[in-house]
């Protein structure tokens, strides 16, 4: 389960890597790398380099002209009957999804794999709104059952053994679950089939968005992506603004690079092209299609001339497969949804270097990630650049701090710096918290300040320190005459402030 972290302690996380994790991870990554190497040989190493160079140029061109291509994409999607929404951050993206769900009285959601939805912690928001949300990619389904985060960009459950998955299925779903991949897949498949038919909304990400045609492209190896995007009456796709590409010829280059680099396939089993909602001449497809374009810190990344090439990433996972650090610690040590070398450069930029300061240092700088990257992102160079930013203490603000949280922090700062306001708060807070209080604790705070109480209760506000001290010692910390003088001063201060406000109002009217 993905929560937006407020601090990632990579060094502490690596102390908790389960012993079975590295062998499971290494077995899978070795297989992907072996398949990839075979296909690169077949393609011809020189031709492969030409293809990588073309991929690099296409992605660089797209992110340098994001304004143009995103506007074109919006026009095309709208023309095809879809709705385009712009989400500045995670809070805005979640609100848009919830609003669409409310408008359609959605009770059940099926989800295809989407890193953007993990990034914005969407499942939790939906569940909190009483909407049953089910991951349908097999790996995502497994980690959802386990209550964990994905540990690899394309193979979310790579850290688990088949025996572990069999035990999980037995515990969570009941019945026999033999530790055999085909049998386990059949169990999941039987469960999921009914859910596709019953869902009111399908959610997906987008591997690419083609500006020229307004096409959303999904690359999967299971049929679940198609089911999620065609069976429910409403389809919502969430994608980072960086996923836009100019046209179909550009897409064809990137598709070749993606499948070969990710799993060592010439092409993925399913490549779906989604072009708005169902048209009057079509039998299948959703009646409504929504595309949410997520920023969440991406435009800020683009401002950094060195680090902006992070935005070229096509999420193939090859840098994870080749990384000696990732292969020894697995994905969870990186503390968030993005792991491996791409996580080490993307997370600090999306969350803020203060939150993920450890990650640029989670690398041996061997350079293998840069060599394998299909779009030639200079990962080692960006890692070094971010290390420098961390050491110099860059003050980049986390993109995930919502306006409400920011307003709360400002109000807290003001109250702590203004004695009369603080005193007023200590009088009012015990009254305000009463409906939520259970004994000495606040077990459930309302959204959006509920992130703490999702995990543990919050202590109820008690008496203020002076009152507590007075009661305990019987000797007032502040002499009575001083308290009375302070109260008189506060009353005069409040009175003067009200008088000033009233005078100003009258002056405005004149
Ligand atoms: S950084 Fe390169 S290798 Fe790593 S996931 Fe992104 S595209 Fe793939």
Account of the protein in words:
This protein is an alpha/beta fold. Among the domains are: 60-303, Rossmann fold, CATH 3.40.50.10420; 410-509, no CATH class. 52% of the residues lie in helices and 10% in strands. It has a six-stranded parallel beta sheet, sandwiched between helices. Strand 5 and strand 6 form a beta hairpin. Helix 2 crosses helix 3, helix 3 crosses helix 12 (248-262) and helix 19 packs across helix 20. The radius of gyration is 26 Å and the shape is globular. The N and C termini lie far apart (59 Å). The model has no long low-confidence stretch (mean pLDDT 90).
List its traits.
binds iron/sulfur cluster, alpha/beta, Rossmann fold, 22 helices, 10% strand
């Amino acid at each position: 389960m993905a929560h937006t972290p407020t601090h990632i302690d990579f060094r502490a996380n690596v102390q908790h890597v389960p012993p079975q994790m590295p062998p499971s991870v290494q077995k899978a990554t070795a297989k992907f790398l072996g398949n990839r190497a075979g296909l690169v040989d077949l393609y011809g190493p020189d031709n492969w380099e030409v293809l990588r160079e073309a991929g690099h140029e296409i992605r660089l061109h797209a992110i340098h002209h994001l304004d143009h291509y995103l506007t074109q994409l919006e026009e095309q999607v709208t023309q095809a009957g879809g709705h385009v929404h712009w989400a500045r951050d995670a809070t805005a993206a979640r609100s848009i999804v919830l609003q669409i769900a409310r408008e359609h009285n959605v009770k059940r959601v099926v989800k295809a794999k989407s890193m953007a939805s993990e990034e914005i912690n969407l499942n939790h928001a939906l569940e909190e709104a009483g909407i049953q949300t089910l991951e349908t990619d097999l790996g995502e389904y497994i980690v959802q059952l386990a209550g964990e985060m994905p540990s690899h960009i394309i193979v979310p459950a790579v850290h688990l053994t088949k025996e572990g998955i069999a035990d999980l299925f037995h515990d969570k779903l009941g019945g026999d679950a033999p530790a055999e991949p085909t049998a386990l897949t059949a169990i999941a498949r039987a469960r999921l089939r009914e859910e596709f038919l019953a869902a009111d909304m399908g959610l997906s990400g987008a591997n690419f968005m083609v500006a020229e045609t307004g096409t959303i492209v999904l690359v999967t190896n299971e049929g679940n992506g198609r089911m999620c995007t065609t069976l429910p009456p409403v389809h919502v796709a969430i994608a980072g603004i960086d996923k836009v590409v100019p046209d179909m010829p550009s897409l064809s280059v990137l598709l070749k690079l993606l499948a070969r680099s990710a799993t060592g396939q010439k092409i993925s089993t399913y490549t779906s092209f989604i072009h708005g909602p169902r048209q009057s001449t079509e039998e299948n497809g959703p009646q409504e299609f929504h595309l949410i374009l997520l920023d969440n810190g991406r435009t800020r990344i683009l401002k950094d001339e060195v680090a902006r090439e992070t935005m070229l990433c096509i999420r193939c996972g090859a840098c994870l497969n080749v990384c000696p650090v990732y292969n020894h610690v697995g994905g969870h040590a990186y503390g968030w949804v993005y792991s491996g070398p791409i996580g080490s450069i993307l997370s600090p930029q999306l969350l803020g270097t203060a939150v993920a300061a450890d990650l640029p240092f989670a690398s041996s700088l061997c350079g293998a990630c840069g060599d394998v990257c299909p779009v030639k992102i200079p990962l080692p160079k960006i890692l070094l650049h971010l290390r420098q930013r961390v050491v110099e203490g860059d003050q980049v603000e986390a993109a995930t701090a919502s306006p409400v949280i920011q307003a709360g922090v400002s109000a807290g700062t003001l109250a702590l710096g203004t004695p009369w306001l603080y005193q007023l708060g200590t009088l009012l807070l015990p009254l305000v918290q009463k409906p939520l209080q259970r004994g000495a604790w606040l077990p459930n705070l309302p959204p959006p300040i509920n992130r703490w109480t999702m995990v543990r209760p919050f202590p109820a506000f008690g008496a203020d320190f002076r009152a507590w001290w007075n009661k305990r010692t019987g000797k007032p910390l502040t002499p009575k005459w001083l308290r009375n003088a302070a109260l008189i001063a506060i009353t005069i201060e409040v009175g003067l402030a009200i008088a000033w406000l009233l005078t100003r109002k009258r002056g405005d009217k004149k």
